[in-house]
């Protein structure tokens, strides 16, 4: 099959770039030093490729991601790096033989984990991103409360998400400051795990015992800006459906690429705006109606979540088609 | 079932507000004066409710929307108000008994319609939105070409999408200017149909024979700003998963609401930012972990496209659950 046979819009993954990204990351963070985050691709076929590179523990953002990973035989060590109140489905996974660790940052989330049948937790510590996580000085008390509730505390997590796109060298200095908080909390909490980091800080963060990077596999134009050695593996293939004297229109729009990080990029063209099912762009060289064009999204995670499937390609050849099987909640 | 039983994030549709919106629109634009656009809800159960209000012709943006509408028995008069090059699946619908009219704006899209087995077209005219549509002065020639290719030309369409959120009275004046172009093109093209308009211009546009409004049914905060008599029927239900001294966090994020029109709104709170699965907000009154909060998205169409289902609710009671069955392409 060729990409010209695909219904557009279609998510394309360049096989060579993907494999190079996986190999580069595995060389830097081998085996358990990396806990790949599946939220960035939501695709068990891609997670299986990450497992083949030696990473058998995975990070998830939703209960659904845990369920589908476990069902695919990838549930040896799943971290739900997020707080959940409704833990019944997680408990069912544990009963079914998966290893599931969940983040807790409050008495309520500890009670929910215990009540739902989850046995292992990480204490989530706020290291500067204004989101989840307890204050660092409360982490020890929460660990005690979790143990009192019968839970095994594996350690801490703390996501320095606000630093991912900060340019070097500030990124390194700020990561050190954030991780100082986490390492101190880890001392209070006990346990072997210090889980943190992401694609932006994968080299800066030398304090975490495991890095939760996800975007490195497929990449996006936001991450491309910081100069890491990962290539743009993901694009959205579109068809030119209309050509006007001063612009052209693709059948790729808001419903096939996420706009939270801004407009997408088209090589050799200026993107003017996106509508639900359209991108209006100004090509440098004339394009014809029916031509296929690849669009690079600014943010990979929510773009992938809009698609039912992704196609692994080598040039114009479609090698495999993978269901994006971890969508929804 | 109560909304407290739902897994979050969950799409809620307030039954009373929805029914009021449908009734208000049907009173203003009865029967064939409205051709509801299904792209705004992607849900045949909701389209069936629109049909019950007397609107039996529908507007679609994708081939998939046409297919699912036809399969649901709602294919009496479907307009695919978009250019398509791969028309084979549309031809199959026509063969299966659905009435499908497709927009054309070029020799290529006319050839595709004819080759794919579509029998009826509208000539799409650019009325000022820099997107699809032929120049008005070319519409007559395209109609001749379509007839020469064996197609029945039902008339014209022209979407004044750039005017939807313009405040009155400018919106009325600019709509008149745009529709002057379309009416003139309609004279050159022939046929009975002048299809145009949307929720923003549903009262301004008195030149179109049918209005393609969609957002009026569920609404969003962007459209709420122009003061039309449609209420916010749609919200995303979230659970408070973490509470910090200066903010709280919901399990609703970029993957459950679209950000292309900006941040969502929470009554009685200030939204700070959204991440993949989180909204960080500052509530006016304290909230507790586990509380349920409704989030109003800025743009309804791409928000709905992120969800597998929507729940029709009356207060805290879940009345029905509808699959969002027109997603994908």
Automatic annotation (TrEMBL), chains A, B:
Coiled coil: none annotated. Keywords: Lyase. InterPro entries: Ala_racemase_N, D-amino_acid_metab_enzyme, D-ser_dehydrat-like_dom, D-ser_dehydrat-like_sf, PLP-binding_barrel. Residues 233-314 form the D-serine dehydratase-like domain. It comes from the Bacteria. Belongs to the DSD1 family. This is D-TA family PLP-dependent enzyme. It comes from Pseudonocardia adelaidensis. The lineage of its organism: Bacteria, Bacillati, Actinomycetota, Actinomycetes, Pseudonocardiales.
């Amino acid at each position: 099959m060729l990409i010209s046979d695909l219904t557009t819009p279609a998510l394309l993954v360049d096989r060579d770039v993907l494999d190079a990204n996986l190999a580069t990351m595995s060389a830097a963070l081998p085996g358990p030093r990396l806990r790949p985050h599946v939220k960035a691709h939501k695709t068990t076929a891609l997670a299986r490729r990450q497992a083949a590179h030696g990473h058998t523990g995975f990070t998830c953002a939703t209960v659904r991601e845990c369920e589908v990973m476990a069902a695919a035989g990838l549930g040896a060590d799943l971290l739900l790096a997020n707080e959940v109140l409704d833990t019944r489905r997680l408990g069912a996974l544990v009963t079914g033989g998966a290893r599931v660790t969940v983040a807790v940052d409050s008495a309520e989330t500890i009670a929910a984990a215990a009540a739902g049948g989850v046995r292992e937790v990480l204490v989530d510590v706020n290291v500067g991103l204004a989101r989840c996580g307890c204050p660092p000085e409360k982490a020890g008390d929460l660990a005690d409360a979790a143990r009192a509730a019968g839970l095994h505390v594996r350690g801490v997590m703390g996501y320095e998400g606000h630093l991912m796109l900060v340019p070097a060298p500030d990124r390194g200095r700020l990561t050190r400051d954030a991780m100082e908080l986490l390492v101190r909390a880890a001392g209070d909490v006990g346990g072997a795990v210090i889980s943190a980091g992401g694609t932006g800080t994968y080299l800066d963060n030398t304090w975490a015992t495991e890095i939760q990077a996800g975007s490195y596999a497929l990449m996006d134009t936001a991450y491309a800006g910081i100069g890491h050695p990962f290539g743009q593996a993901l694009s959205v293939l579109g068809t030119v459906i209309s050509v006007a004297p001063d612009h052209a229109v693709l059948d790729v729009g808001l419903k096939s690429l996420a706009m939270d990080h801004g407009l997408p990029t088209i090589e050799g063209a200026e993107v003017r705006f996106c509508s639900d099912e359209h991108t209006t762009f100004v090509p440098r060289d004339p394009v014809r109606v029916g031509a296929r064009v690849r669009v690079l999204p600014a943010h990979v995670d929510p773009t992938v979540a809009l698609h039912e499937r992704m196609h692994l390609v080598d040039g114009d050849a479609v090698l495999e088609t993978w269901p994006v099987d971890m969508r929804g909640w």
